[in-house]
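User: Reviewer 2 asked us to show a designed sequence for the structure in our supplementary figure. I'm pasting the structure tokens here. Could you produce the per-position amino acids so we can include them in the response letter?
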């Protein structure tokens, strides 16, 4: 048995009771999909937290190098030293590239649960189209699993953002609210 099949079988054990809880199958589908989306939001949030905690020195170093060498390049430009400007600007560009790709990696650490969830939904509901509460022009009144998951994910993300107030999120990010800038 491959890893994904084993993972999906374990996910079935945890998630299917939520899909079967309501008597109405459509309500069960939306409840289960919302619970899956909420689990994806929470897992992604804590994955991001862990990635930031593990890489905070590198992130701070790249950010500091970018700012430092950019400032040096501006000073060299004002002094008229084209060679120093070019050298400092090149180093600042490299540091910015490192910082940029660190941010891309952090985004991936936040979004990986979405792909696992969509894979499980493909495994479980790949052939099923669910009814939408309203008819969308040019699309109709049914949607595939990906559409319903994304809608539930957006709603779960908004709800999670409302529940996790700024002081709580500040502690997650490693900052106390008093340390935040206004």
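Assistant: Here is a per-position design you can include in the supplement:
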């Amino acid at each position: 048995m491959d890893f994904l099949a084993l993972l999906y079988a374990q996910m079935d054990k945890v998630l299917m009771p939520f899909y079967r809880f309501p008597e109405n199958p459509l309500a069960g589908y939306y409840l289960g999909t919302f619970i899956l989306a909420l689990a994806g939001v929470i897992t992604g949030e804590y994955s991001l937290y862990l990635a930031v905690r593990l890489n905070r020195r590198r992130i701070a170093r790249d950010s500091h190098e970018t700012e430092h060498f950019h400032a040096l390049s501006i000073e060299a430009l004002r002094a008229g030293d084209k060679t120093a400007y070019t050298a400092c600007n090149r180093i600042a560009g490299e540091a910015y590239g490192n910082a940029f790709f660190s941010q891309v990696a952090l985004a991936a650490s936040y979004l990986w649960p979405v792909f696992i969830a969509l894979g499980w939904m493909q495994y479980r509901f790949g052939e099923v189209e669910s009814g939408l509460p309203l008819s969308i022009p040019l699309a109709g009144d049914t949607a595939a699993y990906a559409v319903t998951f994304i809608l539930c994910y957006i709603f779960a993300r908004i709800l999670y953002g409302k529940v996790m107030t700024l002081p709580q999120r500040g502690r997650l990010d490693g900052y106390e609210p008093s340390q935040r800038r206004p």
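For the response letter, you might also mention the following. The chain is about 80% helix and 5% strand. Residues 25-79 form the longest helix (55 residues).
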